[in-house]
Amino acid sequence: MPRAKKSALRKKAGNPRRPGRPEGETFARERIMNAAEVVFSELGYARASTGEIAARAKVTQALVNYYFGSKERLFKEVYVRRANEIVKGRLERLHALTRGANPFTLSQVLSAYLEPAFAIRRTRGGRAFLRLQWRLLHSEPPRWGASLRKVYDDSAREFVAAIREIAPQLSEQTAYWRIVFIIGTYAYMHSDTHRLEQISRGACSANDLEQMLAQAKAFVLGGMIAPDVQ
Amino acid sequence: MPRAKKSALRKKAGNPRRPGRPEGETFARERIMNAAEVVFSELGYARASTGEIAARAKVTQALVNYYFGSKERLFKEVYVRRANEIVKGRLERLHALTRGANPFTLSQVLSAYLEPAFAIRRTRGGRAFLRLQWRLLHSEPPRWGASLRKVYDDSAREFVAAIREIAPQLSEQTAYWRIVFIIGTYAYMHSDTHRLEQISRGACSANDLEQMLAQAKAFVLGGMIAPDVQ
Hints:
Number of helices of chain A: 11
Helix content of chain A: over 70%
Number of strands of chain A: 0
Order of helices and strands of chain A: HHHHHHHHHHH
Distance between the termini of chain A: 64 Å
Number of domains of chain A: 2
CATH class of the largest domain in chain A: Mainly Alpha
Oligomer: homodimer
CATH superfamily of the largest domain in chain A: Tetracycline Repressor, domain 2
Shape of chain A: globular
CATH architecture of the largest domain in chain A: Orthogonal Bundle
């Protein structure tokens, strides 16, 4: 890519010049990742190509290869970037509760779990990622799933621990089952499958994010405080 | 396929000879669909081929084309066959409650919704279908999703009506949100993503179907009876 064009793009985005760093590098890298997020989400991994991603990012395919080496590495970086953003948002909220001076409620803990994904859903790229993540559950190659989702594991266990602190009547097993049910509820909600609109014949809309979050919080809290199974 | 082989297979499966019908037709057709269910589930729609399906079903590819015409039609038939089986199981259970002489509970209605999928999960083909269905949520081509899932729509609305009969305090909107959350919980549970095992470090297993069903029932009942959102 000619330097003049890169400079123009950098200027447009207001990216400050950092001395000692290839001009526009961070910016081009991020722009490729943003484009990849949307393309993978729309086409799935198998059908997406680095050529298409390069075109969408308005860079050469050589630049995509220079930064990421392969479609696989690009995919993984895109996934991990957003997953880490969600994990960070969850843990910040959780730690504000568990490390704060005041007692906290189960409802607050579950809100801390749910809210970060809603926050990122408000952006185009974020929404694309949530669909992508869903898609990944059974897209090719499935062997990646477990290793990528590992990003979430430790934080999920922290939530289970916090839940059991407030609801000690729940066995550890039951708390694990329930956090996974919550993951299912949450993942499906963000899958853009439009089941809600279809079944309700348009009486409800998953585009109403306030309503979606409120409904999700009530449902998962009810499920979490249900009597333990024995 | 030579006649002798077809007869032997028919005999093995105990399929009775029906006069006036090409020998083994139903059987070969079903065997192709059973193979297709597994192949689509393992490879996804895009990567599955009728050649692979024919090989798995031990028939010629010409026979697959003869019965189904195209991969697309085969896929849709496989989907609709199982979806109808689940819908039938749900409605039989639901009608036994709503058309019976005795009062029924919300717990019974939700069990009627959840149980049929657990029943089919006990078979290899059924389990493959549940994965496949999950996969379809965002596999290519996504435009099919809504039309295929329509198979479930009327029965989902019947469940919403039955739920509101027992829980009239829930608004219609809330009942729709909650049935969709239950669909998410249920779909994820059958997705074989192994999140439960991964997060719990093996303390829980989604292969324990009794436990899974009991846990799911408790969770969705708790979610359904949670105070309405306003």
